[in-house]
TrEMBL record:
Pfam families: AAA_5 (PF07728). InterPro entries: AAA+_ATPase, ATPase_dyneun-rel_AAA, CbbQ/NirQ/NorQ/GpvN, P-loop_NTPase. Coiled coil: none annotated. This is MoxR family ATPase. PANTHER family: MAGNESIUM-CHELATASE SUBUNIT CHLD (PTHR42759:SF1), MOXR FAMILY PROTEIN (PTHR42759). One of its GO terms (molecular function) is ATP hydrolysis activity. It comes from the Bacteria. The lineage of its organism: Bacteria, Pseudomonadati, Pseudomonadota, Betaproteobacteria, Burkholderiales. Residues 33-211 form the AAA+ ATPase domain.
Length: 293
C-alpha cells in the first residue's frame, strides 16, 4: 500500500504507468480511504490500464467486468443454476426429498464478476469498465456494492466482502453516469497528456523508438490534437503509431511516411481527408522547427 502520493506515483511508474500528479493523488486517496475510483475521460488515455497496473503493483488478482448494453445482474453478479435445480428436482421426484428452500442455497448459485470480487479471500482489483455502455438501471444495482461492499441476494441474504476490493470504474462519457454512483466514488478526469508526459510514456512503452523520433511523434500528435477533428488520437494511438513507424524503419517523420500511416492515428475518413496534405505538411514543419531549435 503506498504511503504517499509520491510513493504511489513511483509505484505506478515502476510498472510503466506515467501518471500526472492529480491522478496519483486520486489513486492514493482511493486506496487509503477505500473508496471506488471513478475515471472518466478521452478514449485511449489509460483509464483501463490503471486498474491493470494497480493489480500488478499491489499484487492482487484483477476481476474485470466489461459493461455493454443489456448487461444485467445475472451476467454481472450472480445467477441461479436452473439446470442444476431442475436436475435435483428430478432426482427428488425419484425418491429423495428436496424442499424449495434448498433450491436457493449456495450450491445452486453461480457467482459472476461482482460476487466473485466480494468473496475472494485476498481483495482483488475490481474493474467495472465502460460503465456508460450499460443501461442506466444497471447503475442502481451497483449502489449497494459501491457504498458498503456488499450484495443482497433476495433468496439468500447479504454477502459482504471480508476485505473491500479495490474498485476502478471507467466511463468514456457517451452519457452521464448517475450522481448516486459518482457520489460514492472519488472522481478523476483523464485527459490527453502534455508533451513531456507523452514523451515519458513513449520512452517507457516503446523504448525502441529513438529520442529524436519519439520527440517528433509526440510533437506531431500534440499538434494533431489542436485540429478540430471528429476523433482525436489518444495515447494508445501514439504508442501504436510509434510501433508502426519502427516496423517501417523510419528514423524521422517525413511526409510520405505520415501519409501512408495516418490510418494508425485516425479512424474516420473525414478526419484523414482533413489532415492529409497541407495540414500534415504544416504540422511536420512545426515539428521540424521545434525539434531542430
Ligand atoms: N499514463 C500512461 N502511462 C503509460 N501507458 C499508458 C498511459 N496511458 C495510456 N497508456 C497506454 O495506452 C494504451 C491505452 O490505454 P487504456 O486502454 O487504458 O485506455 P482507455 O482510457 O481505457 O481507453 P478506452 O476508453 O478506449 O477504453 C495502453 O496500451 C496503455 O498501456
Ligand atoms: Mg478502456
Amino acid at each position: 500500500m503506498p504511503s504517499s502520493i509520491d510513493d504511489c506515483a513511483a509505484g505506478l511508474l515502476a510498472h510503466d504507468y506515467v501518471a500526472e500528479r492529480e491522478l496519483a493523488c486520486a489513486v492514493f486517496l482511493a486506496l487509503r480511504l477505500q473508496r471506488p475510483l471513478f475515471l472518466e475521460g478521452e478514449p485511449g488515455t489509460g483509464k483501463t490500464e490503471i486498474a491493470k497496473t494497480l493489480a500488478a503493483l499491489l499484487d492482487r488478482p484483477l476481476i474485470r467486468l466489461q459493461c455493454y448494453e443489456g448487461l444485467d445482474m445475472a451476467s454481472a453478479a450472480y445467477e441461479w443454476n436452473y439446470a442444476r435445480q431442475m436436475l435435483e428436482i428430478q432426482a427428488a421426484k425419484e425418491g429423495q426429498r428436496l424442499s424449495s428452500d434448498e433450491l436457493f442455497t449456495r450450491r445452486f448459485l453461480i457467482p459472476r464478476a461482482l460476487l466473485q470480487a466480494l468473496e475472494m479471500p485476498g481483495p482483488p482489483v475490481l474493474l467495472i469498465d465502460e460503465l456508460d455502455r450499460a443501461d442506466e438501471p444497471f447503475e442502481a444495482f451497483l449502489l449497494e456494492l459501491l457504498s458498503d461492499f456488499q450484495l443482497t441476494i433476495p433468496e439468500l441474504g447479504t454477502v459482504s466482502a471480508a476485505a473491500p476490493p479495490i474498485v476502478v470504474i471507467t466511463s468514456n462519457r457517451t452519457r452521464e453516469i448517475h450522481d448516486a454512483v459518482k457520489r460514492r466514488c472519488l472522481y478523476h478526469w483523464v485527459g490527453f497528456p502534455d508533451a513531456a508526459r507523452e514523451l515519458a510514456i513513449l520512452q517507457r512503452r516503446v523504448p525502441g523508438a529513438g529520442e529524436a523520433l519519439a520527440r517528433q511523434i509526440v510533437g506531431f500528435i500534440q499538434g494533431l490534437r489542436g485540429i478540430d477533428l471528429y476523433k482525436l488520437p489518444g495515447i494508445a494511438e501514439t504508442i501504436e503509431w510509434s510501433r508502426a513507424l519502427l516496423e517501417l524503419n523510419a528514423l524521422v517523420l517525413d511526409p510520405e511516411t505520415v501519409h501512408m500511416t495516418l490510418g494508425v492515428l485516425l479512424k474516420y475518413q473525414d478526419d484523414i481527408a482533413k489532415v492529409q496534405g497541407s495540414e500534415a505538411a504544416r504540422l511536420l514543419e512545426q515539428v521540424r522547427v521545434a525539434t531542430h531549435g
